[in-house]
Amino acid sequence: MDQAFQVIDDVMKTYVSREDVHNRWLIHQALATAAIRRAVLRALPIRAGMRVLDIGCGFGALTFDIAALYAVQLTGIDRSSTALAVAKRVEHDLRDAGAMAAGCAIEWKTGDAEALPLPDNDADVAVSRFLFQHLTNPNAAVREIFRVLKPGGFTCLIDADDALSLEYPVDPVAAEVRDALSRLQQTNGGDRHMGRKLASLLAGAGLSVVQTFVVPQAHYAETPSRLARLTLLEQLRERRAGLIETGIISQASYEALARRLQQEPAKPQFSMHAEVAVIAKKPA
User: Using N-to-C axis directions, what is the helix angle for 251-263 and 226-238, rounded to 10°?
Assistant: First the structure.
């Protein structure tokens, strides 16, 4: 399977520099956090023949990892038809490269997590990663997961929590960019401390929490690394209008931050980031 994962990463890298792909920082993020994503994936109760949903799938990083491991019926759901169009292109490339498990089928659907385009009792497993921190109504989303799961079905929610991140020494430019992006996310109704709340959300919707765990990733390396720099720069560019319109930063500050982010020399830094994963079951 490691070979299939390497193929997935190699194909995803070919989309990083494509000008027709928007929100390319999501690809950088998927590549940077692949080890954590795959560590969680191996803990999921997925078996061949199951119907599996990836809610908020974006470009399909988690979807494709599942497809590499299991002969299942996958549905990737995202509200961005543009992201799904890219995912379909990536899927085509991965099938040509032989990175999919034999018998695995993938369907892509445009839809909102708070109103899933699926019937009741439809899926055996529903997964979602890095979505709930962006939702304005996460309770509605978990109620939808409960609705579309079959009795006895499982869900796994994975998200970050800013309290589980630390760096030393702090990179002031990267920290300023992350702070601005975080403030914009909160202004838009997001929650940068979602990780700690996932279990309570699921239990509140009537699901039984069966496992919770934290998956860390630590490095001591030159920072900002090329990948980290590209990720932050892409995020900053994609969020430019929102940052300026909300008054979080001025046009001049935006230009200065982007310039400093590109020019800042790399320095050694210890960094640790972790994700919270919660597995829950719908009563049979």
Answer: 170
- H/E run at residue 31: helix 25-32
- What does the pLDDT read at residue 176? 93
Nearest alpha carbon to residue 68 among 36, 86, 90, 95: 95
- Please give the Cα distance from 153 to 138 (Å, whole number): 20
215 and 277 in contact (C-beta within 8 Å)? yes
pLDDT digits (tens, 9 = 90+) for 135-163: 999 999 999 999 999 999 999 999 999 99
Angle (nearest 5°) at CA 214 between 209 and 216: 165
pLDDT of 28 strictly over 90 = no
Q: Provide the β-strand partners of residue 230.
A: none
Task: Label residue 119 exposed, middle or buried (CB < 10 Å: 0-12, 13-18, 19+).
Answer: exposed
Spatial distance between the Cα atoms of 211 and 36, rounded to a whole number of angstroms: 17
DSSP, res 163: G
Cut 0.70: pTM above it: yes
Exposed / middle / buried, residue 218 (Cβ in 10 Å: 0-12, 13-18, 19+): exposed
Say if CB 134 and CB 159 are below 8 A apart. no
Interval 267-272 mean pLDDT: 90
Structure tokens at 58: 């974006």
Run of H or E residues at 245: helix 240-245
